[in-house]
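Lecture notes, unit on protein representations.

Consider one protein chain, 533 amino acids long.
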Amino acid sequence: MAPAVGAETGPSVTAAARDLVALLEREPAGQVSNSVYETGRLVADAPWLDGHGRRLAYLLAQQSADGSWGPAGGYALVPTASAVQGLLAELVRADPAGTAARAELAAATARGLAALARRLADGTSMPDTPAADLIVPALAARIDAHLTELGGEFGPALPPVDRRRVDAVAALLATDHPVPSKLWHAYEVLGAAAATRTEVTPVEGAVGASPAATAAWLAHRRTPDRAARAYLDAVVARHGGPVPCCTPITTFERSWSLATLVRVGLPVTPSPGLVSELVAALGPDGAATGPGLPTDADTTSATLYALARLGHPVDPASLLRFDLGTHFCTWQGEDGHSITTNAHVLEALGWHARNARDGAERYAPRVTRLAGWLRDAQQPDGQWADRWHASPYYATCCAALALAGYAPAEVADAAVDRAADWVLATQRDDGGWGRWSTTTEETAYAVHVLLGAGRPIRPRVREAVLRALEPLCAEPTEHPPLWHDKDLYTPILIVRAAVIAARRLAFAATETARGGASVPRQQGADQGMITTA
């Protein structure tokens, strides 16, 4: 049954928001779901690391009935290739005696190989996730080598995989030409040529904010590196053996979570120390998601916006280096573009254009241009889709809220209405929303679109929100991974913040909205003077 909506809901939501902020302070590394891909890399490349048996058990437990790992379609390619190669590497190392443990590994490996071969033979599209076009061919080559080592026990080689990208990167690594630093996040699949690159050094112990990249980098060194080993030991201990793709995510987690909570007017007050750390994360080139990753417009924008809404604005000049004229890139040299990055840029620049002393002069033209670009990127049915999240509900939420909050009405209103109509048209029979099935996370994004953009609460919207209360107030043991890294993952507190904020909107709407009233647009005061980082 849907929860009763009464006077107690406001305080309970506020308390949940305060508890979340306390977690941001208490666990600065961040909370990220474990990754089949990354765990498979440690099984293959770092069996000496504590927790090896637990990582093997995790891989076996995560295998689907069809033999694959990960969600449907192309999203299964990367985790399945990693898990299969990791299990094959373990079989190559294992005692050939016919033990029960080896038989279990062999059976899982055979099912995984068959699933991977089917997808490659069928021409399953490569997912638009970081380094997928490097990971899959690199691991396919390693799998074929293991199949040869095991003497045909598991059948023939895999179907051919397009190696043009991985071969081009290998050729670049063999030169003295500069290499994009974002490649180091996938150092583990770059091969021996990566070992020649002296510019790769750990930051806070991590190579590319990745356990797999850090372990591979350690394997290439002739002398130990205590900071890198301490980073790996800490990640393994924190997650109990399996590991996430990207950690720590301190600035990313804090900025996204706080921005989401203050956007709907929740009274959260992070400590002065946390605020100072967010300000310090904004260097002259912006902020990065994790140590060893390049600065990016997405994290920079979210950090700027969170600080501004908390009353500690910082001039957003660092964002201008990502300006391509028509829109903003996530990082220099990006292939393609990101809807959600540009939505976050619109919020960050829009706030300053509206509130800073000289903001209108400096940033208003960019805000108008970027708002038009976002509107024009909307799909005919009213949704947006993006490269950083598997669900269109996330992209639609980001774009609709940014346009509603900071675009001229003649640009925003029709686009936001089309987005709301698409959300209403795609509500599931159980009252929730989701790409593959109803999830609490995607239901939260849908509620944000319907209630967070300041549009009148039509009877159809009110009815949809009432139906959504049950899935929105569900407490799943874990949220299905929907965010893009090397495979799909969940930034747990960021998702929790979105759900808490959506509950705030839903409870307010069901308690107070009457006869066409609307939930206030961009709740919370836009105030604070500009400071410099």
